[in-house]
Amino acid sequence: MDQTTRVDVLVVGAGFSGLGAVIKLGEEGFDDVVVLERAADVGGTWRDNHYPGAACDVPSHLYSYSFALNPGWSRAFSPQGEIYDYIRRTAERAGVREKIRFGVEVTACDYDPDRGRWTVRTTAGEYDARVLVLGVGALCEPNYPDIEGFADFAGEVFHTARWDHSVPLTDRRVAVIGTGASAIQVVPSIAATVGHMDVYQRTAPWVLPRMDRPYPRLERAAYRKIPGLQRAVRALQYASRELQVVGLTRTRSALAPIRALARAHLAIQVRDPELRARLTPRYEIGCKRILLSNDWYRALTRLNVNLVTDPIERVSPRGVVTADGVEHPADVLVVATGFHVTDSPFFERVRGADGRTLADKWSREGMEAYKGTTVAGYPNLFVLVGPATGLGHSSMIYMIESQLAYLVDALRTMRDRGLATVEVREAVQDAYNAELRADTGETVWVTGCSSWYLDAKGNAPAVWPDFTFRFRDATRRFDLGAYHRTPTTDPAALQETTR
Ligand code: NAP
To answer: Ligand 1 center to residue 289 CA distance, Å?
Structure first.
């Protein structure tokens, strides 16, 4: 336990971002890379979210690495299992599995300014790394609601991201708390199995139909055999998603057609005016993530499903008590209340040059980074899926690959110029974020709803407020001028960085 492993680049997490990092770094000749993964397999959020009905709401061709397209997707929107398999296969084919230490949890990352290196403590010993890459993801720490009596519930309780498949649901009374992206997939998938289900809605979401369909064998063969076809479809999917950015960030009237479509979708699927009224969102479309489902509303019209809109007052040992005093009995409590995004506990484990944790810095000063990736006061740290990189409308893998290009170019630049450390200049980071804040002020995300895009101060530090190709442009090259740097003096380190 007390041995220290010296490594050039240490990556935390083996989901889409961490895995992408080790693959892309390897292509550039950075081989001394170790990935630490707390679970027993790669896959991140797609490994953990195996709740019934879990699927991606970004089209399959777009929701994959550009360097590992998969012509074999079975349908337009891939189910969780297929994405998980895809990630595992990609790791296998890239030959990076042996670089991953599974079952190792990172407990503390401390930057040592005297040595210009990171000391990383884990449940399986200590690492000493020149560069630290965080690929811990934004949607990895389940958020359990702060509801009185929650711990006293006598039945089974689990979060959607920790689904317990051993708990029987057939003919039982199930309570689902939350009506976000996870809940709207779970509820229709188990509605026919359970005896009775109460769905607790605090805010009605905007829901659009999902244009899903299976890909016939012939179509899959065409993607495999016709050069460029899959990339062309992917480009079309990208462009059509990107059109939403106009309405989300600039011209609100551009959202009118999708608002009308969502209203028509609700009106067609829910005939009961009282239920429809309760399902009608009271905030601007797009302020929270727009959900896609063909069967959410239908599930709520089932006789054994009850939508509860009275606020939850507390959880009792036997069920959920709402503000009107009614106790709704339940055998199983499904918590679909999302994740700690802007307040991830991992940020408490990362200490910069002055000993402050990222959590402390970000909770006081706002969750800010430069180009979503580097942070003043934290040299040689690269945060993937960092501040202001989140998306509600398109593929996060596009953003991740943009960050990977920046990371690889940064390390290449350091190698070519013999640099030991790079640290973004505070003034540059501040100016970048002032601009982002001004842009975000115009967006739909700050029009009065609450969402994981926002921090405790009501700012939207989690989301990218512009077209995603602008982020791609900004991260294409590492802009060394924005950084303080120290040259490598240690000949051994120089050899390491110039190898
Ligand atoms: P979420 O979007 O944050 O939704 C959480 C839900 O729980 C909301 O309805 C929220 O209500 C409710 N809630 C939270 N605390 C509550 C409380 N104390 N009492 C009652 N209700 C409470 O979480 P999620 O559904 O897990 O989705 C998170 C993100 O994961 C998504 O935005 C998406 O990016 C990703 N995701 C993607 C997919 C996909 O691709 N298909 C699927 C699942 C998840 P309020 O709205 O009132 O806050």
So the answer is: 9
Between the CA of 159 and the centroid of ligand 1 the distance, in Å, is 11
Which of 335, 357, 392 finishes a domain?
335
Same domain? For 329 and 386 the reply is no
SS3 24: helix
Clarify whether residues 85 and 122 are in a common domain.
yes
Q: Is 450 in the pocket of ligand 1 (CB under 6 A)?
A: yes
How many domains, in total, are found in the chain? 2
Distance CA 291, CA 179 (A): 10
Q: Is residue 238 in some structural domain?
A: no
Which CATH number covers residue 52? 3.50.50.60
- Residue 402 and residue 491 in one domain: yes
Please tell me whether residues 257 and 185 are part of one structural domain.
yes
Cβ of 335 less than 6 Å from ligand 1: no
**Rounded to whole angstroms, what are the CA distances from 187 to 171, 182, 350?**
15, 9, 37
Q: Do 348 and 463 fall into the same domain?
A: yes
Q: Pick the atom of ligand 1 nearest to 289's CA.
A: 32
Q: Is 200 in the pocket of ligand 1 (CB under 6 A)?
A: yes
166 exposure class (CB count in 10 Å sphere: 0-12, 13-18, 19+): exposed
Answering whether pTM is above 0.90, one says: yes
User: Whose alpha carbon is nearest atom 28 of ligand 1?
Assistant: 338
SS3 assignment, position 112: strand
Ligand 1 atom closest to the Cα of residue 160 is 26
Dump pLDDT digits (tens) for 175-213. 999 999 999 999 999 999 999 999 999 999 999 999 999
How high is the pLDDT of residue 499?
Answer: 39
Q: Which domain holds residue 450?
A: 5-141+340-495
Atom of ligand 1 nearest to the CA of 139: 30
Q: Is the CB of 176 under 6 A from ligand 1?
A: no
Taking a C-beta distance cutoff of 8 angstroms, is the pair 159, 319 a contact?
Answer: no
- pLDDT tens figures, 246-275: 999 999 999 999 999 999 999 999 999 999
Ligand 1 centroid to Cα of residue 178, in Å, is: 6
User: Alpha-carbon distance 138 to 344, whole Å?
Assistant: 8
- Cβ atoms of 70 and 82 within 8 Å: the answer is no
The answer, yes or no, to whether any atom of ligand 1 lies below 6 A from the CB of 180, is yes
Residue 289 neighbours by CB under 8 Å, 6+ apart: 180, 181, 205, 392, 451
Gap from CA of 365 to ligand 1 centroid (Å): 26
The answer to whether 234 and 69 have CB atoms below 8 angstroms apart is: yes
Same domain, 345 and 325: no
